[in-house]
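Onboarding guide, step 5: your first structure request.
Type a short instruction followed by the sequence, for example:

Predict the 3D structure of this protein.
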Amino acid sequence: MAVQDRLDDLRARFPGCRIVAFADLSTGLVFAASTAERVGQERLDALCADATQQLDSAATQAVSEHVFQTQLAPAGSISIGSQVVTCVVSLPDRGAEALCMTCDRTVRVVELMRAAADVLSDLCEEA
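The system replies with C-alpha cells like these:
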C-alpha cells in the first residue's frame, strides 16, 4: 500500500481526524499528508514545527508510557486545545520520522496514537 493510501486509511478510521502528516522532524519536511479539507503548506509546516516542540517537552515520556504502556515505547505527545487535539508519534529507533495529527476532541486519541505507531512503523520499514 502506498504512503498516501496508508495515511488516508488511518485518517478514515477515526472520524474527526482532520490531518495526518508523515514528516521528518529534523528538517521540518512533510513527505505526505491526508487532510479532511484543503490545507495550505504553511499549516503543514506549522504542524511539523509544533510536533518537534511537543516531543521535546517534559511530558512526552509520561504520555508515551500511558498511551503505549511500556517504557520502550514510541514517543508520543498530545496537545489539547479548546477545539483541536494535536498528537505526534515518532519511533525513537527510526530517526526523525513522525506522524503528526490534528483531530476533533471527540476522537479516541489513545487508539489513534496506537494505530499511528503501527502505520509509522510500517512506513519506516518500507523506506
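Each response can be followed by summary notes, for example: The chain has four helices and five strands.
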